Amino acid sequence: MAEGQLNKIRRLGKLEQLSAVAHHIDFFTNTGLSAHYAPAHVLPDFDLEEAVYGALSQVLNQHPVLFAIPVIPEKDEPYWGRLGSIDLEKVVSFVDRSQPCLTGGQTDDELDSLLERQHNTNFKAGYGTLPVWRLVILKDYDLELSKGFTASFIAHHSMTDGTGLQIFHDSFQKALCGITSSSNEQTVDRAVFSNNGPIAPSLEELHPLPIPTSPPASNATQLNEWRGAPIALPCNTRYKSLSLPSNIMERFVQDCKKHRVAPTAALPSLVARLLYDNLPSTVEALTCNLPVSLRSDLPPKLVEGVMGNFIDAFKVQLVRSDLDQVSGDSSIGATGIWNHAKKIQQATRKYFANASPSGELYANVAALKLIPDIGAALAGSIGHPRGESFEVSNLGTFPEVKNAKGAAKSSWHRGKVLLSRCAYAGGAPLVVCVLNNEEFVGFGFTWQDGSMEESIVEARGKNGTGDLNCRDIVISGIMLVRGQLKLTRGFGVRRLKRIGFSGHGANPQRRIPL
Fold first, then answer.
1. What pLDDT is stored for residue 383 in this prediction?
2. InterPro entries under this entry (predicted)?
């Protein structure tokens, strides 16, 4: 195989192995982050392709992991192999929009379709000769006037977590601004050669990942729990998104403050409530999976501004009987979510307080060290129940790139952002990804085709298209929350950030004091 001829960088850590093997056996394809870019001023004679190629060339020189490919030998330990060069024309695609998309629109069906296709396309074609990432440029419909576009960075999960996706976009925006402000016009060489720089150490090299001597006591009650259909292949991804102006979320955030709950705890609770409203009354429990970033527990010099995979997750069971009691004539709104939100907040505190005698966090991902053959474990899970009902991955705020001190205003503005990913065959039937940039809050909804019952998929609903109903119910729920009390003017972005919608590139559940 071509990848077997690549120079070895280092062996994969267990967390990296999980993503690499899952990709290899079609359990998981990729993850992604999309951002809209628009010039801050008129750009005469602007060549979009040359600008993108030029910016990407600089990003490649900054992040050596973009030349790395997971190699899974039949007998030896998996390792990272290094490509000698990358042909930019083989990893970048330019797509024209077929119709206008409103800047303030809540939905973008054309981008959703593009992302769904991308998340159903793995990196096996040309494996060992092409990198395990790609960049898709969706041009604005009126490109000649706006010069704007949406850049979707799609990557193998072994090489990056959500924060790493943000790091890529920050580097890309900085490079794009530099190229635009430069007076030198030159054609970019389409072949970029590796500088053989080091990649980030694995999580195991940066953290001892202690394992408790006694297994933690499970508080999960044995109830009739909904977890979708059993684990099965093929794993075909469905995807829809929703972008809400930040001011729509202000009422929700203010209610969270009133109840002394962080929005990062209230959002999963809202999803649980909306699922309960659309599941049979016999469903007694839901288990929520909550990914968290471990970067703040790692040496800053080795992870800050560096692409890599440093995540963990914990689970919380949310019981129907714990829902707040609501009078029969009340709207769903925020009522019904606070008991669950407080339980999630308590579980979050407990997770981060669970440390070893030497002070290191007990991360759940440490258990991967006890699995000798991850591939066999994943394959053996087919036909078994899933481990959770839904997942909420909240990366908080993705702020605009800051210019160097004394520099002029950024020549490119980053607008709407969307965090997205494929469905995971062994994971939750529904995944909600959340990311905001102080102007919009982006929600991405992912589910495996066939993993959820017809009561959750809108096969008999408004449009009969089979599209996920949860997107509509989430916006309805948030709008109902907002409508219960009058919006207070002046409760702006700064307060929103302070209360909870700010993770500064890391998972806010790790950064916000709860």
1. 98
2. Alcohol_O-acetyltransferase (IPR052058), Atf2/Sli1-like (IPR010828), CAT-like_dom_sf (IPR023213)
